[in-house]
Amino acid sequence: MTELAPETRTRVAAQLRGQRIETASWAYGNSGTRFKVFPQEGVPRDPYEKLADAATVHRFTGVAPTVALHIPWDLVDDYTDLARHARDLGVALGTINTNVFQDNDYKLGSVTNPDPGIRRKAIGHLLECVDVMDRTGSRDLKLWFSDGTNYPGQDDVRTRQDRLAEALRETYDRLGPDQRMLLEYKLFEPAFYMTDVPDWGTAYAHCLTLGERAQVVIDTGHHAPGTNIEFIVAVLLRAGKLGGFDFNSRFYADDDLMVGAADPFQLFRIMHEIVLDDALTGKGIAFMLDQCHNLEPKIQAVIRSVLNVQEATAKALLVDHAALRAAQLEGDVLGANEVLMDAYDTDVRPLLRSVREDMGLDPDPIGAYKRSGYLEKVRAERVGGTQAGWGA
Ligand code: PSV
Ligand code: MN
Ligand code: MN
């Protein structure tokens, strides 16, 4: 690697030290596909143990201090106590994810269901999740609806949008002044003909009507193949409506594989837009992982994912913005592209190792985790770990 100028190194290192990545409680539990869940030894038996695994990821990476919960997958009697437990472990509870997709009642939809009684039940769950946030101190409520239809004519698209708008309004109005609503879109699945929130445009339109604290969340696995996700990032940033990411990677559909595994260049392009907007820290964007580790060891996979995000970020931070701008203004098509590729082609691993040393961490988080004996310990202690909830 060409030596970095000392001032570049100092600037990039400071940004990398300040970066925050939120891990998801469900990544630590057993998961699989609709064909099979292959159980792993040592997986957590309850939300308390999931937090212990998340704290382990934070211990070795130093940049993953919060954990997203999914309600009711992470059902406990006392969320204040769970928040205290998280603090004792050196982490905090993060985004609260709602679940209005697993009850039999939701066969024809949750908040867009034709039956007003079922819509009331679904809204009730969303409001309960805000109660949970009050106890956990979480800032963000993340909404993803599996609602949609399988056949043309099955239900009326516009009426369903009206029902959705009503539910979002009631939930938004229940939020405290420091709480936000993140609305997630997904092209298809489980609905195969029409999804009620299929794309960023629909999510954006609802958020715009709701108010400032309603923001769009981009799950990188939720688009048609070939979609230019960094364009969506840029447009939402420009509009002040990007609330966060659910990071993962995909080859086909919503694969939920490790972020940066399938297309590290796409992740770099996304992070480049973030860096261009100076939105890595301080603008409230939540950088979350939404992944399932069906085959690979889970804690190690989450650590790997955090490192993948860090690597893409480090490369994005190395883009020479002045040179890029100059080439763009001169109409130097290849020159501008070369500026980006120079940054992308830089081996940032030595830089990240030294940043970790500056933070008092082992420069090799995966090696350090493996040497720590944590997995052997939990394998011995935990018998009969729980399902993540997903792919059951
Ligand atoms: C739906 O596919 C989704 O991306 C939502 O974020 C859910 O909360 C999550 O997956 C569950 O894994
Ligand atoms: Mn998601
Ligand atoms: Mn998904």
UniProtKB/TrEMBL annotation:
Top-level taxon of the source organism: Bacteria
Keywords: Cytoplasm, Isomerase, Manganese, Metal-binding, Rhamnose metabolism
Manganese is among the record's keywords: yes
GO molecular function, one term: isomerase activity
Protein name per its UniProtKB record: L-rhamnose isomerase
KW Isomerase (keyword) present: yes
SUPFAM superfamilies in the record: Xylose isomerase-like
Listed NCBIfam families: RhaI_grampos
Organism: Dactylosporangium maewongense
Gene3D superfamilies, sorted: Divalent-metal-dependent TIM barrel enzymes (3.20.20.150)
